Every structure is written in C-alpha cells, then in structure tokens.
C-alpha cells in the first residue's frame, strides 16, 4: 500500500498528541478562556440533542467532552488517532463509572468507513479544530451522512482562514502568528512535544459547499471573535471586568455578520436532509 503525505501527517499528529496526552489536561484544564470555549460549544451542541441521544465524536482527545455529554445522559462513541489520548479517555470513563455510556475506538476520521461502530448516530461532533489537521477534509465530510440517523446533525468547530485577533498581533510585531493563516493552502507547520505536523484552515463556505446536497445549515457561530483566543495568556485574570464585558458582547454578536466569520474558531451545525 502506498504511503501518502496525509498518512505521514496523521502519524506525526498522533505521535504529537500521544506525547502530550499525560499532561494535556494539566496544561489546558484550568485555562479560563478554554473553559469558556468548552461551555460555548457544549451549549451549542445540546440544543440539537434529544434526551438519550447518540454521539459520534471525532478527535475526542482525553475525553473531556465525551464525559460531559455522557454525564448528561447521552451515549458517546469517542474516536481518535492518538493511542495516548484514547488511554486517558478510558481512565476517565472508569473513574466516572460511565462505561455504559462511553465507548471508544482508535480510528482516523479520514477512515470512517472502517469504523467498527457505525451507529447510526443522532449527532457527529468534532471540537477544537481537530479537523484542521488534514488536507482531506472533503473526504471526511463525504463520509458523515451514512453514519447519521435521518435528520441527524453534524457540529464542527473549525479554524477559519482569517482571525481578527490573530491578525491584530501584527501591531505587536508577531508577524509569523499574524499571517500564519494567509497563503496556507499547502498547510502550516504546528509543533507539539517534539513532533511537527501540518494544519490547514477552512472557511464555513468550504463545509457548506461540500455538504449542501445532503445537509441544511442550522447555524454558524463565531468563537473567540470578541473574547481573545486562549493563547493570549492570563487575559481573563488580568482584565476580569473587560473579559466579562467581552463575553456579553460576543454572546450578542456571535451569529451576526461579520463576527461569525472572523473568530479564532467558528461552530457550524448542519442537519441531514
């Protein structure tokens, strides 16, 4: 079998996140803005789930979201390409005694046709830009519909090609970060725990154009459009009143133009026709 550039990138990505899996939650679990982002994404997802819904989670990481939705009474099949992340997820499932509601499978989202547990599911979910780690997103998107129940929903959290906050770092002299989403059609290098892998950026129009024959758009929300990205360290703690004001403004404007398109991420949900 021929080894492709995507195979190599997936292997590098898996190695990077496996290397970080033991410390991932310690690094990011107490970050105020990351917790804000999780709350936003979870609230978005819950509006489309009926009680006892079934979820296929892609790039599930250490299982923070899987555990949350399972505790709410849903059943989650959590998939990832990182063995280390899957191990962390299994430890959490055991700790929280949720083995009857959370299952897991080591599987790439570019290979969903080979899933052992094909559902069908009420919702397919991918959080925090996991899908930005492939240049074969079209392949992933084309595989979703058969895994969903009639009227099932897809919710994806994606990095777009433009982020207002990131571009403004130009004025702080951080040129590489400010321009990293520009001219990125061949991918941009990311670096975690000694491993390098590539990321790509996708606007909502990319998702919509490839799913329009099978799905209707339910909503698009900007995430960290007014609230700063989580890598701007300690912003919420240093500027607590400003941060609270920004959260209120983002809540008002998250679905409005242009704010839904210029955040660090966007959340998009589509319903199967």
Keywords:
11 helices; 273 residues; 36% helix
Nutshell version of this structure?
This protein is of the alpha/beta class. It contains 11 helices and 9 strands. The strands form 2 sheets. Strands 3-2-1-4-5-9-8 form a 7-stranded mixed β-sheet, sandwiched between helices. It has a two-stranded antiparallel sheet with strand order 6-7.
Report on the architecture of this protein:
The protein is an alpha/beta fold and 273 residues long. Helices cover 36% and strands 22% of the residues. The protein contains eleven helices and nine strands. The protein has helices at residues 5-20, 24-28, 32-46, 64-71, 83-95, 137-142, 164-168, 175-178, 204-211, 235-238, 240-253, and strands spanning 54-58, 75-80, 102-106, 121-126, 148-158, 188-192, 195-199, 215-223, 265-272. The strands form two sheets. The protein has a seven-stranded mixed sheet with strand order 3-2-1-4-5-9-8, sandwiched between helices. It has a two-stranded antiparallel ribbon with strand order 6-7. Helix 5 links the parallel strand 2 (75-80) and strand 3 (102-106). It is globular, with a radius of gyration of 18 Å.
Strand elements, count: 9
Strand content: 15-25%
Low-confidence stretches: none
Can you give the mean pLDDT?
97
What are the SSEs and their pairings?
Layout: H1 5-20, H2 24-28, H3 32-46, E1 54-58, H4 64-71, E2 75-80, H5 83-95, E3 102-106, E4 121-126, H6 137-142, E5 148-158, H7 164-168, H8 175-178, E6 188-192, E7 195-199, H9 204-211, E8 215-223, H10 235-238, H11 240-253, E9 265-272
Parallel strand pairs: 1-2, 1-4, 2-3, 4-5
Antiparallel strand pairs: 5-9, 6-7, 8-9
């Amino acid at each position: 079998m021929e080894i492709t550039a995507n195979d190599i990138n997936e292997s590098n990505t898996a190695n990077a996140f496996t290397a970080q899996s033991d410390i991932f939650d310690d690094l990011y679990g107490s970050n105020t803005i990351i917790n804000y982002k999780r709350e936003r994404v979870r609230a978005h997802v819950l509006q489309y789930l009926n009680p006892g819904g079934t979820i296929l989670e892609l790039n599930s990481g250490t299982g923070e979201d899987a555990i949350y939705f399972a505790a709410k009474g849903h059943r989650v099949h959590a998939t990832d390409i990182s063995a280390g992340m899957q191990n962390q997820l299994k430890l959490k499932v055991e700790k929280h005694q949720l083995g009857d509601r959370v299952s897991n499978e080591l599987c790439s989202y570019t290979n969903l046709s080979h899933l052992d547990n094909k559902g069908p599911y009420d919702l397919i979910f991918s959080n925090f830009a996991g899908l930005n780690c492939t240049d074969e997103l079209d392949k992933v998107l084309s595989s979703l519909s058969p895994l969903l129940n009639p009227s099932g929903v897809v919710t994806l959290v994606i990095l777009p090609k433009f982020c207002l906050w990131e571009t403004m770092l130009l004025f702080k002299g951080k040129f590489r970060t400010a321009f990293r989403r520009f001219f990125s059609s061949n991918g941009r290098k990311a670096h975690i725990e000694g491993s390098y892998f590539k990321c790509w950026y996708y606007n909502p129009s990319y998702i919509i154009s490839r799913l329009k024959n099978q799905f209707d758009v339910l909503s698009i929300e900007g995430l960290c459009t007014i609230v700063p990205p989580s890598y701007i360290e300690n912003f919420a703690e240093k500027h607590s009143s400003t941060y609270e004001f920004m959260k209120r403004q983002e809540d008002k404007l998250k679905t409005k133009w242009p704010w839904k398109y210029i955040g660090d991420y966007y959340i998009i949900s589509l319903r199967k026709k």
